[in-house]
Amino acid sequence: MTSQHVVLVTGASGDIGRETVRILLEELGASVVATDIVLGAALDGHQKKYPGRLEVVIGDIVDPTISEKSVALAVQKFGKLTGVCLNAGVFGPGYPIDDAPVDKWEQAFRINVLSHLHTLKYALPELRKTKGRITSTTSAAGAEALFKRWGFYGVSKAAVGFLVKQVALEERENGVTAIGISPGLCDTQMVAGLLKGNQDGWGEKEAAKYHDFVSKIELTSPTVAGNAYAQAVTKADPGLSGLLVEYDDPRLPIAEHLKRKSAAVDYTKASAEAGK
Ligand SMILES: NC(=O)c1ccc[n+]([C@@H]2O[C@H](COP(=O)([O-])OP(=O)(O)OC[C@H]3O[C@@H](n4cnc5c(N)ncnc54)[C@H](O)[C@@H]3O)[C@@H](O)[C@H]2O)c1
C-alpha cells in the first residue's frame, strides 16, 4: 500500500532527526527516506521495525549525489516525494571572528547551508508535483547574536532562515510550502557537546557560561521537537509558507499533549544573564 506522505529527512540519525523519523513512521503512517553521515542505532532499529516504509542513505550531505540519490529513492520506492525535513547540521567552529579558521567556516557552511541547496535542487521538481512541504531546522541563534564564538553557527542559521523565505517566495505559485522551525534549546548531542566544552574552539571556560544559560531554560525534548517537524511536514497550512517560528507556535499542527506548558523563552535575556 502506498503511503499518503513520503518524506525525506536529513540528519536522521541525530536526536531530533531520529524522533522526526519515528513519529512519521509510527504515528503518521508515512514512508521515509532517511539520510545521515552515520547510521545511528535508532535509525537502524526503525529499519528493522518498518521494512518497506523506510529507506536509508548513508553519506555526507555536502556531497550533492547524496541528495540526488535520496530524492530518486523516494520516487523509485514510494512513487513520490511529499515533504523534506532539512535537519542535518553542526555547531561548527566556535571561535571569535578574528580567530576564525576560514577553511573550517567554509566546510561547516557546506553542511549547514549549501547542502540545503543541493537537496532543494533535486527535491523541488518532485515537491511541485505533490504540492509538498519543506521544514528547515532554524535556531534562535540565527535571529539574534546570543554568544561570543557563535558567529559561524548564527550566520549559518540566519542563512537557513533566509532560504526558507526565498523558497516560499519562489514556490508559492507552485503550491510548495516552506517553513523554518526552531526546536528551542533541545536536549541533543549538539547541546551536550557544548555543555562538555569539547567542541572545536569551545572549551571548558565557554562551557561554564553555557551551563549557566542552559540552567535558566527548560530544554525541549527531541520527541517534542521531532513532533513539530513531522506534523508540519505532513500537515502545515500552506498559508504559513515563509514563516520562521518556534516548535510550539500555535499556528503549527501540534498534538495537544506535546504543547509547551511553560512561558516562551527569551534567549537574548538568558544569554545576557549568563554573561555571553
Ligand atoms: N539542539 C538544539 O538546541 C538545536 C537548536 C536549534 C537548532 N538545532 C538544529 O537541529 C538540527 C539537528 O541537530 P540536533 O540538535 O538533533 O543534533 P545532533 O548532533 O543530534 O544531530 C545532527 C545530525 O546531523 C548529522 N550530520 C552532521 N554533519 C553531517 C554531514 N556532513 N552529512 C550528513 N549528516 C550530518 C549528524 O550525524 C547528526 O546525526 C541541526 O540543524 C541543529 O543545528 C538544534
Automatic annotation (TrEMBL):
Alphabetical UniProt keywords: NADP, Oxidoreductase
Pfam annotation, one family: adh_short
GO MF, one example: oxidoreductase activity, acting on NAD(P)H, oxygen as acceptor
InterPro entries: NAD(P)-bd_dom_sf, Sc_DH/Rdtase_CS, SDR_fam
Family that this chain belongs to: Belongs to the short-chain dehydrogenases/reductases (SDR) family.
Name listed for the protein in its UniProt record: NAD(P)-binding protein
PANTHER family xref list: BENZIL REDUCTASE, BENZIL REDUCTASE ((S)-BENZOIN FORMING) IRC24
